[in-house]
Amino acid sequence: MKAVIIYYSYLGNTKGIAEKIQKEIGADIARIETVVPYEGDYNRVVDQGQDEVNRGYCPEIKPLDVNLADYDTVILGTPVWWYTFAPAMHTFLKSQDWSGKTVYPFATNGGWIGHTFKDFSEACKGAEVKEDMNIKFDEATLRTSMKDIEKWIGKIC
Ligand SMILES: Cc1cc2nc3c(=O)[nH]c(=O)nc-3n(C[C@H](O)[C@H](O)[C@H](O)COP(=O)(O)O)c2cc1C
Questions:
Q1: Is the CB of residue 47 less than 8 Å from the CB of residue 78?
Q2: Per residue in 44-57, pLDDT tens?
Q3: What is the pTM of this model?
Q4: How far is the CA of 79 from the centre of ligand 1 (A)?
Q5: Residues at CB less than 6 angstroms from ligand 1
């Protein structure tokens, strides 16, 4: 099994979890970044995010330095933006062929996960989408127990 962690993170919560997973399982890791950065204060980004999610807008993202074809297991991490994955993750999911892959999604959020994992399953057509992990933060403070996160990571390999 060859695994890669691919994540998007605006403020750093998802990045921290992605790096924790990498430490535990030793997989390759890559961060999705938008070509045009989100700018302005938090509330402005929250509003922009709402507009983008409502329109199904997929922002242009920078090329990743990993090739999905080299991996059979993909761990996907995103913050929840308006009850689903962030638009940058949407762009990435749409750009790939998921057939034959095994996917483990995780999502950091403030407590309103919405339909994020259902949307992952629909976007990764042809993949076997395995157990997901809902990770709650209050701003930058982790609220889900690290033990539960480690238990989920233990199921990946
Ligand atoms: C545009 C935007 C929309 C958000 N929508 C939700 C939401 O629908 N449900 C929720 O629980 N948290 C929501 N949040 C909070 C983030 O999901 C949460 O803070 C997350 O851990 C941030 O991850 P990051 O630090 O990796 O960017 C939203 C944040 C932003 C910026």
A1: no
A2: 999 999 999 999 99
A3: 0.98
A4: 5
A5: 9-15, 45-46, 49, 79-83, 108-112, 114, 137
